[in-house]
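agent> Task received from the user: take the single chain below, predict its 3D structure, and emit structure tokens. No templates, no multimer pairing.
agent> Plan: (1) validate residues, (2) run structure prediction, (3) serialize to tokens, (4) report one or two observations.
agent> Step 1 OK, no nonstandard residues flagged.
tool_call: predict_structure(input=
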Amino acid sequence: MDNMKSKYRKALIVLLFAALLTGCNQNFPEEEETTVEIELNNNRSNEVEIHLSDSDIRVDGKEVSKDSGKSVYVANDIIYYEDGKDFTYGEGETDDAHSKEDALAHNVLHITKPGTYRISGKLSKGQLAVDLGEDAKDNPESVVTLVLDGVELTCEVAPAVIFYNVYECGNDDLDQASKDVDTSKAGANVVIADGTTNTINGSYVARIYEPDSVVLNEDKTEVTDADKLHKYDGAFYSRMSMNVNGGDENSGVLNIHAANEGLDSEMHLTINGGNINIDSGNDGINTNEDGISVTTINGGNLTITVNGKTGEGDGIDSNGWLVINGGVVKAAACSDSADAGIDSDMGIHILGGTVMASGHMLDRIEDGGQTYAVFHFTQKQNGAEEILLKDKDGTSLMEYTPQNAYSMLIYSSGELSEGTYSLWSDKKQLEGQNGGMMGGFGKPEMDAEGMTPPEKDENMQPPEGMEPPEGMELPEGGQQPEGMEPPEGVERPERMEPSEGMELPEGVKPPDARNQLSDNQNVQSSSVDFQMKNGANMFTGIKYAE
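)
tool_result: status=success, residues=546
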């Protein structure tokens, strides 16, 4: 037994951070250091090696089987949004549909058994699909690890990589939802092998209805209700919770080029390492179970650019929580929509790492985490110009070149602390107002540490064209500070429609999308020096110094 053990090598990714650890279905006590070990089996003899090719896909050196009873087989059975269908088929538009000819040109490589699969080679029209069966969701042994070892995969009609059915370590009980989850036992795992470059070019599948569930109106002219049969928005997609890991040296690269969204999970997504570059038509990263999903970043280097081909898109968008414990995150939202570099419905927690995010909207960043600064510009800024944040000694802490136009910039780092800083763009110094509060039209939550409820002003009026919801009062300072209007050319995406009976100015998010600040709430005169405090910092009216 000892001799056999000597043949194996295990790479241990040790995730060590204090107080808060995000993952699947386990809450960890505060003020207790927690270590989680995720074992990545590097024993090549235990792996199934798959080499992709347009002419000859091989599994462990042999030609791939076409027998669906095998653990790995190939077929021309890709799931896609068919063209020529009427409105009872699904919600897709003409641009979302594909011909049968285009679909059949794609080879689907199916993985049906648990295990570790090392993927290499190139497939110009194909898909990698993992499906261990409907019972896999509740089976802790239904775990698949994909080791990306120099793979180039392109799919023009659907996600290029998709996990359909594997073990789900979390649950969808809204009452138990929390930002503190543990995905170490998740059934969907990806390892970016050291020293390799991997490229995934993927599309998506618009919502397709379950045929027997479609309910029409009296005139039979529109669908009033229908269950979802298929809907897969991302180029790299998982229906279950997923982990993405780097190798021992964290030197592997994963490039994702997405027609719609980039890296998606319907439940939780945890990124522990790797160098991940995402160029997407819509959200770069999305976890989409409302009020439940947690996007966790513990390490790695992420660079996300939303190219705007769909007209909108956040850099990172979580329908639950976004928790950043480590790594480097650079995220640029769409140039022309009211979207954010980092976005979360339930709250953003920056507890470590380095974050540089740009866009035209600010979502709530929770108190109690790492110091961060928000810079809001008076005008829409062109991308591709380097932004520098320098301390009083002239040392640059932040060096960031947003690739998209933006009007709001977020920076957080363990190196950022109380003191005096200056901001530079295109080698020119910028000035702005120290402090300020993000304009919002809902009551700020007053239980955050250090937050003092503002006094009510009976004469306070909302901006022209907007009335607050019935029963909702505007706090003092509820009007937007100078420079907080959406820049010209920024449009509100469809997902930001106000609730019934409430009209919002273009580019303004609903009440829950607000930022909480602790101490920097008094707007001061413009200055080229920015006085940073520990915690939350908002600087408005940013422009070139005269």
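agent> Step 4: summary for the user.
The longest strand covers residues 144-154.
agent> Done.
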